[in-house]
Design goal:
The complex is a heterodimer.
Chain A (H helix, E strand, L loop, with lengths): L37 E5 L9 H5 L5 E6 L5 E6 L9 H5 L5 E5 L3
Antiparallel strand pairs in A: 1-4, 2-3
Chain B lengths: L21 H11 L5 E5 L3 H6 L11 E3 L5 H15 L5 E7 H7 L1 H9 L4 E7 L25 E2 L2 E2 L8 H7 L4 E6 L3 H13 L4 E6 L3 H4 L6 H10 L6 E4 L2 E5 L10 H5 L10 H17 L3
Helix pairs in contact in B: 1-7, 3-5
The chains are: A mainly beta, B alpha/beta.
């Protein structure tokens, strides 16, 4: 059987006109950090490494990374390119190690 | 100083959901329960619209959207195609909102469960049609003000009771049915894993607070998820083979008044003591019904 590809497909619409996104995770181009009015600032000395902030972040832009300064304990690191500044992490942090600070002039 | 960090592979940032979205917070928890051998069929809704603004996609898994009502049927088709190929490893899951589940897709969901197909159905329950502008759905609870059930001098908001979708799933004899909220990310992840381990149809319903729909602050989605459980209005439940196997309501659980949950939400702000009593009764009934 002849293998169907875009060139011999019975559908004559050019592939670029079909509403199909073939590349995964392409929304990474969309830097939603520009939405932010307040930014979360993490106090790693208070942080107990429970990783709740990383779990509840709707963007998934907080990751737990080992910190040399704190004896390889895991602490949250935020990707400010995408953080929309919702403040969920600051509100839910059990030890209040996250503060929301003004992020505009 | 921006450190290079690894983002979630299955649901990446850059989506257009509101800041602090409870649904996306819950979706991140669902994604942590999956492995890469998964195909997702998504119904129309906020999750679909915000994550796939053409030509971009936030998904790192094979993901398909067709219509509002047919996500369950699309999933059945995918499963049939996988069976034809002899692929038994790949799991199929459906993601939909409460509009696609409670109202529009109900017939096709019923068909999927009737056939007993090995598909996990995840419903993100925002208790209204959030994507189109907060119209009331079958999941809208009593007293909630929406754009189609506005509060006013002669109206208390929605007068309907919330449809018991979990009971509808159980009536189909699904092997695994569970309920969770966005306040408990680890519970969601554990339930996704448990549902995928079960052979046969499974249903997971997650309460996902909606910032503009519930008229709450950007940072309150998780808090609302926790309060919904604490008051007994939306307990964490798990049914295996039709039997209640886990519940957040135990003999030891502390009773929190529903007013704690209602007072921070703009959609309930108009309620008077009379209506609050009716909602308290619903919570009290749950405390009896779902006690383990």
């Amino acid at each position: 059987m002849k293998k169907t590809n875009i060139k011999n497909s019975p559908i004559k619409t050019p592939a670029k006109k079909l509403a199909v996104v073939t590349a995964p995770n392409t929304s990474l181009k969309n830097k939603t950090g520009s939405w932010r009015t307040h930014r979360p600032v993490f106090d790693h000395s208070l942080c107990i490494g429970c990783s709740l902030c990383s779990k509840i972040c709707p963007e998934g832009c907080i990751v737990m990374a080992k910190q040399k300064k704190y004896g390889q304990k895991i602490k949250p690191v935020v990707d400010y390119d995408y953080c929309k500044g919702c403040g969920l992490c600051a509100k839910e942090c059990p030890v209040k190690a996250i503060k929301m600070e003004k992020d505009y002039e | 100083m921006t450190k290079k960090i690894k983002n979630n592979k299955f649901l990446s940032p850059g989506h257009n959901a509101c800041a602090g979205c409870g649904q996306l917070s819950a979706a991140q928890a669902v994604m942590r329960g999956l492995n890469k051998d998964v195909i997702i069929a998504n119904a129309t809704g906020c999750l679909e619209v915000t994550t796939t603004a053409y030509p971009q996609s936030s998904w790192g898994l094979p993901w398909i959207h067709s219509l509002f009502e047919n996500a369950a049927a699309v999933a059945s088709g995918i499963l049939a195609a996988l069976a034809q190929k002899g692929d038994t490893k790949t799991k199929v899951i459906v993601q939909a909102g409460d509009g696609g589940t409670y109202d529009i897709g109900l017939g096709l969901i019923s068909g999927m469960w009737e056939r007993g197909e090995n598909i996990l159905y995840v419903c993100y329950d925002t208790e209204a049609y959030s994507n189109t502008g907060i119209q009331a759905s079958g999941a809208t609870p009593y007293g909630a003000s929406t754009t189609t059930t506005p509060d006013g001098n002669a109206s208390v908001g929605s007068t309907q009771r919330k449809k018991d979708m979990l009971a509808i799933a159980l009536a189909h004899g699904v092997n695994y049915a569970a309920q969770s909220t966005a306040g408990f990310p680890d519970d969601i992840t554990a339930k996704v894993k448990a549902a995928l381990a079960v052979d046969g149809p499974s249903y997971l319903q997650i309460l996902a607070p909606c910032i503009p729909g519930w008229k709450i602050n950007n940072d309150e989605a998780v808090l609302m998820g926790k309060l919904a459980v604490a008051t007994g209005l939306y307990p964490l439940l798990e049914y295996r083979n039709g039997k209640l196997s886990a519940s957040s309501i135990t003999v030891a659980s502390r009773k929190v008044a529903v007013s704690e949950y209602l007072k921070n939400q703009g959609r309930f702000r108009h309620l008077k003591n009379k209506e609050i009593k009716i909602i308290q009764k619903l919570a009290d009934d749950n405390l009896k019904k779902y006690r383990l």
